[in-house]
């Protein structure tokens, strides 16, 4: 069973992961001016993740110009996290690694079990989280969230960038905050 869904305008769970460049990413310690964009990905074994993160790397400077700090996070160990950062030629995108399954669950991410080697010949970890994309306000509250059970058909970063422009221009509030008491 997946964890309780996160609610817009409510605090998100803690996130504290080591970075491939050294140091740690601690959500809220040094937030982006407008948002932190947290992209949870499956891991080095996922060729769809690599392609997806290459696009995020390309657009990261545009997000940064708009006051959005960007990080990609997986449950991979340091070696695999470094390999993914290298694979996507990361210069603008931060990579966090070592996400625990307990933390993944707190974020409402789906968890998958290994099915062996992937189409690119890499072994899947025993357990790993499926994708999730979140925009978190500097005050630590959820603005936007999308989680998936599969690596396919993810939110597109160009669309999200356009949405950030709209949000900034119109001071658009987070939506979906009505409590689940129906």
How would you describe this structure to a colleague?
By secondary structure, this protein is an alpha/beta fold. The protein has a single domain, classed as Glutaredoxin. 27% of the residues lie in helices and 21% in strands. The chain is built from four helices and nine strands; from the N terminus they run βββαβαβαββββα. It has helices spanning 47-65, 78-87, 101-106, 157-170; strands at residues 16-18, 24-26, 35-40, 68-73, 94-96, 111-113, 127-129, 132-136, 142-147. A five-stranded mixed beta sheet has the order 5-4-3-8-9. Strands 1-2 form a two-stranded antiparallel sheet. A hairpin with a 5-residue loop joins strand 8 (132-136) and strand 9 (142-147). Helix 1 (47-65) packs parallel to helix 4 (157-170). The longest helix has 19 residues, at 47-65. It is globular, with a radius of gyration of 16 Å.
Tally of alpha and pi helices = 4
Shape: globular
- Specify Rg, calculated over alpha carbons: 16 Å
- Spatial separation of the terminal alpha carbons: 20 Å
How much of the polypeptide forms β-strand, as a percent range? 15-25%
Number of domains: 1
- Following the backbone from N to C, one meets helices and strands in this order, namely EEEHEHEHEEEEH
Would you give the CATH topology? Glutaredoxin
Strand order of the biggest β-sheet: 5-4-3-8-9
CATH architecture: 3-Layer(aba) Sandwich
Fraction of residues in helices?
25-40%
Number of strands: 9
Unreliable residue stretches: none
| CATH classification class | Alpha Beta
